[in-house]
């Protein structure tokens, strides 16, 4: 017997209409480039709008897209920073029946082109600070038919138009197309897999459910009274879903754009009276340093309205949590992946635990407990369930209504498995679960490097360095870094009779990679440990070089 409830579809237009009507006067603030200072650095200019105006422009964008010769489900790419215009794309593109594909602005142009081609993007919305990339992308991406520049167009370019002029030449969309809640709404690519990046398609339903589950008190605790600063990029797993969650619940949003240094963030938190901010550990390390310096100088910031900092992307050390607590600020850790939309766990505490006690800090340093509708499980290498005792490690599996069941175009199916008659996603992480449901990631089963919240492929770096004429063998492993969490360390066996330096190797591979991918150091050795199957034993290398880098070479500060 079926229930008697209305089959109302869960779609992005529901979020857009809520913002357009109930929260139309709620403010949206963006920091946009407003010229340059004497040092040639961009100067932030504060731009204010409202949800009502954002919704109106989003509906104009939807109408403009429908005026093109596109097919429902076509991908619309963004190469953009956090701003009100990007929020318009979040709302307008899916509401027109198309798929919003948010591109990582930190990738090398060759990687950007590869992903644009793999996704089959037909339209690109690109920030004006990236216009120099346009000619190369036009030449490399045959499916890319239209390019619109967000912000002022510096100079006329063939096949390129102003986004603002384009959307404002259309009247707002009056009628939404028929959208099934299981239709694709968003596309994000993850580099957290071996080989080429893999795409994850988010549905309208998964976006709505994720937003509803993230807002409650024991998750991210977002409501209309809040002012939220999502420093995590909007191209990075939908900025952890915050743009949608905040819009659904009417929270005031602050977008920092490209201005994410510690001093600017501290000023934003103070001036905008932010209550919630979210970012990766690298961002918080910069903020912590700024707060420490201001306190020492006797000019502390007034962050009395700031209720919590959300940290994710990579594990936050307990010392970071304690450091912010010394400023009276509470840091909450969350965990997820591109494949989990991303929020799956949050380190909220039971009422009997003092968050500032040793036990409280220890629990907050874990990845936390599942949000409603998410399930976690651990299995051994043999595929058997392992106990949730907080000690026994296992492969971390996850399932839920906003967890991927396959990759875009059906790739990488080895990450999806069946257990107990149910489908699960194998995260590639090794973790423990305890009796109270706290999950703690212990290690990763793959040899990827996570730097500043972004993945770096050791395999890609190795392959590039092996092409150098002086290199016989190469292994790239992660080494600990106090600022970026992890950085690449290259371990190289030179060919007989040859020598090579770190600088020579960097010069050789630099044209192929983004700057922040490049190894921080190179160690020359006469052999690498090889296992029985002929594979390099990276676990032994990580053990041998544990702690490498402490004072052994200059700290790089130019990775972003």
Structural account:
The chain has 16 helices and 26 strands. It has 560 residues and is of the alpha/beta class. Among the domains are: 248 residues, Rossmann fold, CATH 3.40.50; 96 residues, ANL, C-terminal domain (GMP Synthetase, Chain A, domain 3). The strands form 5 sheets. It has a 9-stranded mixed beta sheet with strand order 2-1-11-10-12-13-14-15-16. α12 links the parallel β13 and β14.
Key terms:
7-stranded mixed β-sheet, single chain, 560 residues, 9-stranded mixed β-sheet, alpha/beta, Rossmann fold, GMP Synthetase, Chain A, domain 3, 27% helix, disordered C terminus
Give the overall average pLDDT: 91
- Count of runs of 4 or more consecutive helical residues: 16
Largest sheet: 9 strands, mixed
Query: How would you classify the quaternary structure?
Result: single chain
Instruction: Name the CATH class of one domain.
Output: Alpha Beta
Q: What class, by secondary structure content?
A: alpha/beta
């Amino acid at each position: 017997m079926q229930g008697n409830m209305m089959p109302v579809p869960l779609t992005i237009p529901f979020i857009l209409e809520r913002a357009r009507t109930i929260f139309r006067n709620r403010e949206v603030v963006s920091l946009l480039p407003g010229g340059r200072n004497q040092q040639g650095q961009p100067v932030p200019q504060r731009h204010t709008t409202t949800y009502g105006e954002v919704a109106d422009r989003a509906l104009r964008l939807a109408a403009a897209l429908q005026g093109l010769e596109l097919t429902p489900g076509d991908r619309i790419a963004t190469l953009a920073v956090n701003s009100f215009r990007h929020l318009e794309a979040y709302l307008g593109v899916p509401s027109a029946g198309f798929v919003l594909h948010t591109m990582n602005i930190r990738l090398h142009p060759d990687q950007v082109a590869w992903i644009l081609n793999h996704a089959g993007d037909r339209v690109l919305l690109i920030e004006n600070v990236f216009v120099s990339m346009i000619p190369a992308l036009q030449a490399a991406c045959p499916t890319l038919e239209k390019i619109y520049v967000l912000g002022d167009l510096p100079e006329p370019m063939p096949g390129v138009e102003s986004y603002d002029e384009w959307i404002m030449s259309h009247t707002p969309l009056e009628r939404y197309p028929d959208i099934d809640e299981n239709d694709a709404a968003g596309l994000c690519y993850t580099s957290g897999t071996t080989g080429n990046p893999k795409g994850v398609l988010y549905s309208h339903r998964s976006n709505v459910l994720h937003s509803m589950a993230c807002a409650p008190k024991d998750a991210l605790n977002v409501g209309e009274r809040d002012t939220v600063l999502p420093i995590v990029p909007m191209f990075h797993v939908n900025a952890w879903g915050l743009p949608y969650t905040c819009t659904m619940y009417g929270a005031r949003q602050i977008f920092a754009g490209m201005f994410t240094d510690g001093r600017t963030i501290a000023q934003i938190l103070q001036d905008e009276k932010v209550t919630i901010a979210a970012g990766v550990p690298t961002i918080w390390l910069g903020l912590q340093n700024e707060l420490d310096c201001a306190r020492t100088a006797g000019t502390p910031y007034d962050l009395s309205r700031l209720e919590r900092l959300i940290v994710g992307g990579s594990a936050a050390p307990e010392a970071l949590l304690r450091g912010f607590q010394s400023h009276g600020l509470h840091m909450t850790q969350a965990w997820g992946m591109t494949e989990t939309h991303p929020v799956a766990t949050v380190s909220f505490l039971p009422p009997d635990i003092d968050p500032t006690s040793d036990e409280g800090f220890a629990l907050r340093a874990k990845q936390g407990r599942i949000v409603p509708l998410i399930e976690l499980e651990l299995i051994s290498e043999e595929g058997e369930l392992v106990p949730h005792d907080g000690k026994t490690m296992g492969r971390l599996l996850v399932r839920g209504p906003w967890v991927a069941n396959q990759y875009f175009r059906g790739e990488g199916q080895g990450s999806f498995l069946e257990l107990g008659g149910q489908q699960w996603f194998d995260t590639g992480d090794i973790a423990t679960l305890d009796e109270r449901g706290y999950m703690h990631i212990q290690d990763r089963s793959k040899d990827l490097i996570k730097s500043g919240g972004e993945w770096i492929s050791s395999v890609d770096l190795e392959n590039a360095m092996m092409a150098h004429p002086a290199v016989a063998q190469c292994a790239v492993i992660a080494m600990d870094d106090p600022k970026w969490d992890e950085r690449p360390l290259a371990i190289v066996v030179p060919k007989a009779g040859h020598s090579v330096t770190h600088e020579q190797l960097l010069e050789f591979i630099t044209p192929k990679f983004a700057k922040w991918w490049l190894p921080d150091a190179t160690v020359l050795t006469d052999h690498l440990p090889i296992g029985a199957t002929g594979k390099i034993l990276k676990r032994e290398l990580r053990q041998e070089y544990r702690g490498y880098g402490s004072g052994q070479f200059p700290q790089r500060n130019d990775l972003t």
